[in-house]
Design brief:
With about 90 residues, the protein is mainly α. Helices cover about 45% and strands about 5% of the residues. The protein is built from two helices and two strands. β1 and β2 form a beta hairpin.
């Protein structure tokens, strides 16, 4: 689970489920790499995100989930912005 702040950056990351052996769970320091990241070309493995030896699937899945979350956040924020603009334009003036 990712929490995205008002600046469209990852503020918090929580693992809710892990269906593999516990020894494959990356350390908290690895997950901390995502904090403060925004959706850009650097948010990728071998970019700003370092790979995890022996946990490639976890690294790929987490990085992909972070990118999807930030992309969804951008779409929703844009729709809300447009809705607010439309509501403001439709409001009666006195």
């Amino acid at each position: 689970m990712f929490v995205v702040d008002g600046a469209a950056k990852i503020q918090r990351l929580e693992m809710l489920s892990f269906a593999e052996p516990e020894e494959y769970i990356p350390r908290g320091k690895w997950y901390a790499q995502f904090l403060g990241k925004k959706l850009d070309d650097d948010l990728r493995l071998k970019g700003d995100i370092k790979a995890v030896t022996g946990a490639t699937m976890t690294a790929v899945a987490t990085t992909d989930a972070a990118r999807r979350t930030l992309a969804l956040h951008a779409v929703i924020a844009e729709r809300e912005k447009k809705a607010d603009s439309a509501a403001g334009a439709a409001a009666p003036t006195r």
